[in-house]
Amino acid sequence: MLLKRDESIILVVDAQERITPAIHQRDIVTSRMRWLGEIALQLDVPVLITEQYPKGLGYTVSALREIIEAARVVEKTHFSAWREPTFQEVVKEYDKKQIVIMGMETHVCVMQTAIDLAAQGYEVFLPTDTVGSRRPNDKETAIARMREAGVQIVTSEMVAFEWLEKSGTDTFRHISKNWLK
Fold first, then answer.
1. How far apart are CA 122 and CA 117, in angstroms?
2. Where do the domains of the chain lie?
3. What is the widest separation between alpha-carbon atoms in the chain?
4. Do residues 20 and 45 touch, judged by C-beta distance below 8 A?
5. Which phi-psi region, left, alpha or beta, contains residue 41 (left: φ > 0; alpha: ψ -120 to 50)?
6. Residue 153 CA, distance from chain mean position
7. Secondary structure element (H or E) that encloses residue 142, with its range
8. Where are the beta strands (DSSP E) in 105-178?
9. HSE-up of residue 98 (Cα within 13 Å, Cβ side)
10. Does the keyword Hydrolase apply (predicted)?
11. Mean pLDDT lowest for which of 39-53, 58-72, 123-137, 164-178?
12. d(Cα 11, Cα 14) in Å, to the nearest integer?
């Protein structure tokens, strides 16, 4: 199945101030999250952000400021966002069947949320360059487990090109100006 922008939401899981410094290749992960989030905004794909106990772990990192300003933010204490009633309500309000999930940590909150969403019948897509863990092995193992649970493993560029569908449009030209970021 391919992604369709009018059927998608993008979900940023726990990219928070006190988690991010410990993430392996955090600058690359954060940069790809920002890049894909900005494309989502340009294409009117709704953005949803979760924050795990922000009083203790801080808020979403400032590098994602533009995305934060346009997103709905849901606080949570469960590792799987799906286990939070408020999160379920918000996701259902969007009435979209495809969820692109990115964030931290891959093997905890991202994985548990992705597997729960897939079990609920959502088409879940995980751009591997937009997720991070403290240890590479945890990330790799979580990606393998999500794949086995039916999550579609993709990259941020795959998502963008699928949302765009074709070249030659004004939207494609506008977005492709900054493609090599």
1. 6
2. 5-176
3. 47
4. no
5. alpha
6. 12
7. helix 136-148
8. 123-127, 131-132, 152-154
9. 16
10. yes
11. 164-178
12. 10
Give the whole-angstrom CA distance, residue 149 versus residue 95: 22
Contacts of residue 7, defined as CB under 8 A and 6 or more positions apart, other chains included, come to 96, 97, 98
Q: What architecture is the 5-176 domain classified under in CATH?
A: 3-Layer(aba) Sandwich (3.40)
Q: How far apart are CA 143 and CA 153, in angstroms?
A: 8
Find how far residue 93's CA is from the centre of its chain: 18
Please state the rounded mean pLDDT for residues 109-129. Answer: 98
What's residue 178's pLDDT? Answer: 65
Model-level pTM greater than 0.90?
A: yes
pLDDT tens track for 18-48: 999 999 999 999 999 999 999 999 999 999 9
Q: What is the DSSP letter of 127?
A: E
Q: DSSP alpha helices (H): ranges in 16-121? A: 26-42, 54-57, 65-70, 85-94, 111-119
Give the position of tokens 């949570």. 76
The span from the CA of 18 to the CA of 134, in Å, is: 12
CB-based contact 105:133 (threshold 8 Å): yes
Give pLDDT, residue 180: 47
Task: Report the chain's mean pLDDT, rounded to a whole number.
Answer: 94
Check if the beta carbon of residue 66 is closer than 8 Å to that of residue 33: no
